[in-house]
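Risk register update: the risk of archive-format incompatibility is retired. Evidence:
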Amino acid sequence: MKYSNHGRRTENFNRNWKFIREDISGAEQSCFSDAGWEMVCLPHTPRIESLHVDMHFQGICWYRKHFALDEADKGKKIFVEFEAAMQEADVWINGKVKLNHKGGYLPFTIDISNDVDFDGANVIAVRLDNRNNGSIPPGKPLESLDFSYFGGLYRNIHLHVTEKLHITDAVYARKPAGGGIFVNYTDVSQASATLEVQTHVRNEHETAKKAKIVTTLLDNQGRQVGSAESLIETIMAGGAHTFVETMTIRKPQLWHPDTPYLYTLQTKILEDDHTADEIHTRIGIRTISFSKEGGFVINGVKLVIRGTNRHQQFPYIGNAASNNAHYRDAKKLKEAGFNFVRLGHYPQATAFLNACDELGLMVVEPVPGWQYCEEGEFQDIVKQNIRDMIRRDRNHPCVIMWEVSLNETYIGRIGATDEFFHECHLIAHEEYPGEQMFTSGDTMGRNNPAYVGYDVPYTLWNDETLSRPLEEVLSDKGGFDREYGDYEFGGHESTSRVPRDAGEQKLLLQAWNYQWSLNRNRGNRWSLGDASWVGIDHNRGCFPRLSECGALDTFRLPKFVYYFYQSQRRQDIVHEHAESGPMVYIANYWSERTSPKWVVVFSNCDEVELFVNGKSVGVRKPDQGPDTEYGERVTGYEVDYWLRDEEQHKGKDACLQGKTDAGDMKVFAYDGGNCRNLAQAPFTFTGLAYVPGELMAIGRIGGKEAAKHVVRTPLEPETLSLRIDMSGKELSADGADFVFVYAEIKDANGTVVPSACNEVLFEIDGPAVIVGENPVRAEAGIATVLLQAPETPGEIIVIALAKGVKPASIKLASV
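Archived output:
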């Protein structure tokens, strides 16, 4: 695919790469024969992994691509931009070494203008090494790392062809607070906003050139709403110049998570009225601030940050996700009710940030790191990573904080000094001057957090008083909870880590953990907001099992806690591209039970009426009970940050019980309390005798029905039913895009049978392949495969078969 502006052409460089998973001598040479190598399309992972992989592939692999250039490109600048490569990359063009790049999460570019042949074939060769390397962030060996980084050319590659007089790439230019396009905003209000636009232009002609910049602001309908024109400047041969323009926009549409309005900034270089280069930059106009007294403020209005964390990985293919897949993740997190995502613990794909811009998800972007801070080359790369991530992403309106502290890297780790992290803070402010740069990071473990200087310090709540530590040292700053809801409930055996087939009680306990924690957070007057750990289940290098504390499982299927968060979204906000508005959900399978005789309903409506087999069993307002202790220790329970006064609730009947390797504990869940600080409390119906049949919840707003949810007692499995997760993006026939196909095992009434664990076989007819396991055993009544489309579009038929139930089929098209 090619797309071009005047004077510039960009090509998708993802197709027709040769690949081999071993180290090969001489593979950098253009005359080397790669005839026996596998042909692949990017993004690509070096090895398809098992679902529960911990130690993914680590080693050497090679990629090679043969390509030709147009004769018309002679005399122009030709760049190859890698969005990322994991994790040490050596790159050659036609046998000439071009680059050694260390780091797996940020882009790098090579200039091949003088290395290519316009009369024949060219070869670009890439050697990747993703073995443990203490010099490359995150630095920690995979076997002790709490996430997986996989490998390969796992993001997009682009070929850019420009004139010799061109707008630079911000990362490639390596210019503090410069390079490329950099947009800042001042005097932002509903009435007007002033844009300051920096444009960095390089002249690689052999003579000086006179040029000017014309900048035009287009609304989301493509209409001009503002413009600016610079003076003509003379740029010397081999030199560069930064043009600075300002424009004032009347009655701007401001970017906000509830109204994520985007403009397009059109930037042109004019040389003697000829367009030498043109770039389009998508921007959002907004202003933000953080303070202890005012909280987080966007566009002059306080907003509580309600977020989660996300790892960038997917089952089987690791991090090698398409742009569409990143969008689908963002859409699901937005629909869950979150307005914020922490990119734990590294910069993620530009496509994900683009989706956050579009959908209205605010972001904190962390520099790569995790419990490690060796002096020397590692710290040098960290500091360059901070510069590169800001240069890459500074124009995204979704990014509101820059995390520069290396996750959980406290005093005691070699090199983790206050001086180093203070320098990281200063580097961020050098790269992004002005009042709209906010660094964030861990205050825990810093000797002098005031000296380190994070604008938004991360916090840990004191066990005994739930008061904020460092109150005297950081008395003027609000705090942010970067992770909550998982580790405090049992460490590596946390009761928040629940697979989707764990059963109703454990799913409810998981939801209760997050409710209890969120209510605690919201009750603290220093809190600017928080991010749950974690939005989506993920693999872990240090543990042979998925981290299952997600609101969504690894196949992006929701657990009960997903709907708890959904109930926290505002009923009156309707988003154009995401499910929103009123909702109601019964967190119950309504099957034969010995569990407590209550039913929990999550809803953002004013009231909920519950019906059993058509008969009303009551109307309830949201729960309003008091805050209580979390529970009671039964035996030694070591990791219990929040458990105190064990005797307070002894003898209570309404409790759930969670078991860990440290013992048992009683949890007093869904007692009608621990909800007063929430945006919306659950609706807990008590005293319900189980009668097989149907539960129906009707949510009302102002006395009128606004949402409805029905669950039915599951019967015996009878049939399969197929559905496909598009989440706002059709399956793209680009060789990399994929969708999840869900085979639901249903009874005669169309109810998914949560106890069903049949093995399901999928068959495909048409241009698509299944990546990973097939057949697949159903989990909680649903079997899932990852369906990937090659580069040929067309109709695809998916058939699902399982013993003892009727088969199913479904059609879709890749486009």
